[in-house]
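User: Could you check the structure of this?
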Amino acid sequence: MPDTLSDFRRFEQLTAASVSSVPQFTPSSETPTSVQIERGIVFPHSMNDPKHWQSNSVERLIELSTSPSLPRISVVDRHGHIRLVYRPLLVYCWLQTFSRAYEALPRAEFGRWEESIRAWCDVLEGTIGDFDWPAGAIPASLGSRATEIAWAALTLHVAGKVFVRDAFTDFAADTFGRFTKRQRDNGAFFEATGSDNPETNWYHELVTLHAAGSFAVQAEDRAVATSVARATAYHAANTQPDHATNQPWALFAFIWNESTRPLAEQILHTSATQDANTNHLTLMLLADALYCLRLFIPTEKTV
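Assistant: Sure, the predicted structure tokens are below.
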């Protein structure tokens, strides 16, 4: 019989090794109206050292937080590409770093971070509120928008815990409840048709699954955890994640399900072959998987 804790410890060690060397952020595709998702590299830095907060990655985010155009700021990757999930993912990484480093932050810096993150979270709250939920299944054509909603909800859950704001945690729980109620019988989150690109749909499924898995373990939400298990089984039986992305989306979710751990092994192996200096996003996703694993393994204080 498999020893789940032993498996988790092994994956924790492998994942920690993958984020042991983290580069600094250098902007390459930003404009006056955009910031890069790679600024979220502060999260893997903080997983190695919670006191690692002196980063140029954060300063521009703080500056933009007071701008009336904040809701219209684009979040792009180093190639200049925009994905709707990038904004909530960036805020999530920054927020997790804050939750781990706040004891080390000088009082003045603490106030700047807190006020700025709240402003970005308010934008995410509006993002969820503006989403028009379909009465039934979520069509795959809304996959990109749905990934944004799922990650915004995950971020608001963490924000609700950090800022002791029940409205955020309640909103997040309600949002993931809407996802689980619309989940397909086969475990997919979206309803695809013959006109939907399979690999694009698989990507959106994986991104949504990552957020759901991270939320389920952090919120200790059994209903969402059950939904996550069904979704991981769906991918193991019906999709080819490596055809959709070479990034470790949903790594923790696949580790969590005993039957999909071989798939998690493949995802980790693929991540290990990438150049960390140019794949900040990979390190950010690995950092979240590591964070979730450590919630089961009391090797350090977690928030």
